[in-house]
Amino acid sequence: MIKNILFALMLLNFSSVFGQSISLINPPSSVSGSSDAYINASFDVKNESASNINVKVKRIILSEVTGSENNFCWGTACYPPFVDESPTPEFFTAGAVNTTFKADYNPLENEGESIIQYCFFNNDDPADSVCTIIHFIATSVGINEQEASLSLSNAFPNPTSDFIAIKYKMKNPSHDANLLFYNVVGAEINRVQLVDLQGSVVFPVSKLSPGIYFYSLNSEGENSATKKFVVR
């Protein structure tokens, strides 16, 4: 832990002195949700330089709620919780924007706040870097769900190879409500339009490749907490 924090401080110090070619586009300072569901954070990463670079990600856990887990996705891979640094860098052409980063936090029904730092650095020059800190806040009832008046059940069965069933509930009528499905890089793969204030959706997955997928409820711009299911 101390080694990781010293590494992060070194990156921040070098960045402030020499500048950086990597920038982060609107990273959230905090995200929150229910303690019984995944909490996700994502943002884009840009190469501000006129040269091609290879970028890695390093995670530094500053404080962590006991019993919780977290991991991150970079490029086409989502790494398990014990991986702190992406083994494979992402290639950026000059001025390119990468949209594949996603931080996943699983409270596992443990309430509280975990603080995690993510540092993006040039694989050929680690001093060329930028870091951000995200506060993951898990409560008994997700703050985002309270504000949006939306609720979404865990998928069943999970893992699955045929279909999943998901229950949803909206407090207020909506003219534009959809259940959205995403792959691990955050690209939307399907959506189901919702008409009733509450009900169930059965979503077939037999044509999806094995892997991790996410879903959320969107109603007129408001989002529920994002949840996860696995296709095997």
The overall pLDDT, averaged over residues, is: 86
Taken together, the total number of domains comes to 2
- What would you report as the Rg, rounded to the nearest angstrom? 19 Å
| Fraction of residues in H or I helices | under 10%
Distance between the termini: 34 Å
Q: Strands of the largest sheet, in order across it?
A: 2-12-11-5-8
Describe the overall structure.
- With 232 residues, the protein is mainly beta.
- The protein folds into two domains: 2-139, Immunoglobulin-like; 144-231, Macroglobulin (MG2) domain (Immunoglobulin-like, Sandwich), CATH 2.60.40.
- The chain contains two helices and 20 strands.
- It has helices at residues 2-18, 143-148; strands spanning 22-25, 30-34, 39-42, 44-47, 53-63, 69-74, 77-78, 90-92, 97-98, 102-106, 112-122, 125-139, 150-152, 163-170, 177-182, 188-194, 198-204, 211-219, 222-223, 227-231.
- Strands 2-12-11-5-8 form a five-stranded mixed beta sheet.
- A hairpin with a 5-residue loop joins strand 15 and strand 16.
- The protein is globular, with a radius of gyration of 19 Å.
- The two termini are 34 Å apart.
